[in-house]
Amino acid sequence: MPPALDLSPFLLVRQHFESHKLSDISASVHETLSNSGMASTLKPGSEIAIGVGSRGIANIDAIVAAAVAWWKGQGMRPFLFPAMGSHGAASAAGQAAVLAKYGITENAMGCPVRSSLAVVDLGVTPDGIPVVMDRTAFGAAGVMLCGRVKWHTDFSGTLESGLFKMMAIGLGKLAGAKSYHTFAYRMGLEAMIRSVGRHVLASGHILGGLAILEDSSHDTARVEAVPAIDMERREEQLLALVKTWMPRLPTELDVLIVNEMGKTFAGSGLDTKVINRAVWGDINPWPGIPRIGRVFVRDLSPLSYGNATGIGMADVVHRRILKHVHRQPTYVNALTSSQPASIRMPIHFPTDRECLRAVCSTVGRHNPADATVGWIANTLDLGLLACTANLRSELERNPRIEILGEARPLEFDERGDLMGWLAVPASAVHH
What's the pLDDT at 426? Predict the structure, then answer.
């Protein structure tokens, strides 16, 4: 019998975040688009290209369906296209499949879905960046981007992940994404996004965007139509707002257990501003965020389609994750984004017990029972988590935390893998 893993017992806790959940998403989409003026200069029957990204946005199918219905109500002919750079294994079919996994299909949305990697040349920015744009979208009377505005996992700024980034990397497809990240390596991501985004706006093809904001519980909190003329300034304001809703872990930890990583949770697979890591290898680089000593990842989400970008931020992973990693999309994403460190392979073992024993031996605790350990499902959903009972006094001082029941020791099955509470095997959804 393997030696015991003498960790402190675990408490199941709930974080109570302030809710900003929309009560009627469809009505909100229709109202904001009706007040946007986006259709005012278009002739009836015009084709409208609606760009949709590749993140796991809550209610994205309902939001996109409402936008399609609104454009149809204006007498236009909308179609959808993937605006996701190199994701979906950098293929037209792969990107359409990503949208389909989110329920965005021709039948469900009531309009065509057109996926292509072909681009057209839009010239060069004042910073010397050649700009390209999805050829399918370019041929429409106007383009509206539908995407979430949130903090970026690779940098901090006043303009991070959102509509402007979609205009650059999303509309640029594989060709643009690779070129833009090469420029960003030298000039920074925010400067690149602004430079390319402004140039795309100046082309006159962009009508505006439908900005989606989510609250701390990953609920749709706001949808706002942002006309092109106001996009840069308004996105900065929306980003500042959504950063005030950013969920965090309630305490510093020696070890954080994460059931699943993947592109559906964050562009880097793991939200760096939750685990306090950087895709280029820095540990605890983000100020104001709880320090995390080690990160143990148990599996890769099936909605990541084998893309294991971000696995390099983990210190140890369960060996099952290796079966779900597809080399092609992982390599394409890492090389396109100029981040090869993000896919370095961590230490791995065949059971959760072995992974935990190994990683807990590296956190400077002579007695394993003194190690502070947290356990989450993924870095997007921080409402329910488990923490070792040696953190009880700190948790009890946090007015946002509710402790659910008594502390219990970790449970393992006969193979040595975690059971109970948050441990529904991530790999089960692959079968």
Answer: 39
Name residue 133's beta-bridge partners.
120
**Residue keyed to tokens 């990683």:** 359
80-100 CB burial, b ≥16 within 10 A, e <16: bbbbbbbbbbbbbebbbebbe
Structure tokens at 370: 């003194």
CA contacts within 13 A on the Cβ side of 321: 32
Token look-up 């971000």 returns: 310
Residue-wise DSSP of 90-153: GSHHHHHHHHHHTT--HHHHTS-B-----EEEEEE-TTS-EEEEEHHHHTSSEEEEEEE-B--S
Tell me if residue 188 falls in helix, strand or coil: coil
CA distance 230 to 227: 6
Contact 162, 145 (CB under 8 A): no
Q: pLDDT (tens digit, 9 = 90+) per residue, 407-420?
A: 999 999 999 999 87
Enter the pTM of the model.
0.84
Mean pLDDT of the chain: 92
199: part of which helix (H) or strand (E)?
A: helix 189-202
The pair of three-digit structure tokens given for residue 409, joined into one six-digit string: 């020791």
Report the length, in residues, of the chain.
431
Which domains are present in the chain?
10-17+247-430 (no CATH), 25-243 (3.40.50.11440)
327/193 Cα distance (integer angstroms): 28
pLDDT at 351 over 90: yes
Q: Which of 127, 142, 132 is nearest to 177 (CA)?
A: 132
- The identity of residue 355, as a single letter, is C
